[in-house]
Amino acid sequence: MMHTNDLKALLPAVIDAVEVAGRTLLARFSADARPDNLAALLAAIEANDVSVSDALQSTLLHMLPGSHWVDDEEGGGPLPDGEWWIVDAVEGNVNHIHGSAAWAVSATLVVDGLAVLTVVSLPAMATVYAAVRGQGATVNGMPLQVSRKTQLHAAIVGTGQARPGEGRAVHAAIGASVFAMLESALLVRMAVPATLELIEVASGRMDGFWQYSQVRSGLAAGALLVAEAGGVVTDTHGQPWSFASLDMLAAAPGIHAAAVACLRAAVDLADAGQA
Fold this sequence. Notes:
The chain is α+β, with helices and mostly antiparallel strands and 275 residues long. Helix content is 42%, strand content 21%. It has 2 domains: 4-143, Fructose-1,6-Bisphosphatase, Chain A, domain 1; 152-274, D-Maltodextrin-Binding Protein, domain 2 (3-Layer(aba) Sandwich), CATH 3.40.190. A 7-stranded mixed β-sheet has the order 1-2-3-4-5-6-7, sandwiched between helices. The protein has a 5-stranded mixed β-sheet with strand order 9-8-10-12-11, with helices on both faces. The protein starts with a helix and ends with a helix.
């Protein structure tokens, strides 16, 4: 495991690399963008990726000799031992190409299966979130703190798709969980990408977020930010979350247990519907 001092020394260079990519994407961004068919949408997504991915990969790998790159942006499950970069060069790409400011560039360093450093830049909002394991989470250098709420019925919570076409079982679980939370929480919202919703939890503007997904690039950065901001990150059954987990729940400590109970009831409802 890398020493904390080494990670703290590495952090400014990672921030610089992510912000360089962010500036390239910001120059490509238009609030008036509206692709009018699937082909145009996919072409715009690909063009954004191509504009920054190779340069960002080269910079991060050179920064930490011997480190590895996770090629499959939508991949899930545990990683081999060693130092790995999980990067989403245009997180929320679909938002970017539709003129929404809800997109980011994220880079997370995983060492022997554990996320130890992350940077998420939101160029359209001139905001950078960062965390080093054991050192807290920050936004533009200022500390982040999760919500202090203790009642689920006062909580703002959310979920979202990890990607299109996840299948009926996942869709059923999402639907049942939203129904259960609508009965239990104050407000329920659905949005993508997951990292930006997890940032809302880390910042205390939301109280919980869950997702039925193993997509590492959508969860790694936000999970570390929430944990370092004082939140609780588990699977939806309340067990410690890892890249091997099938789903994730990140919440303020005061509502976490109630959220787990609510989502367990939702799973029972979804299973009954599939039977």
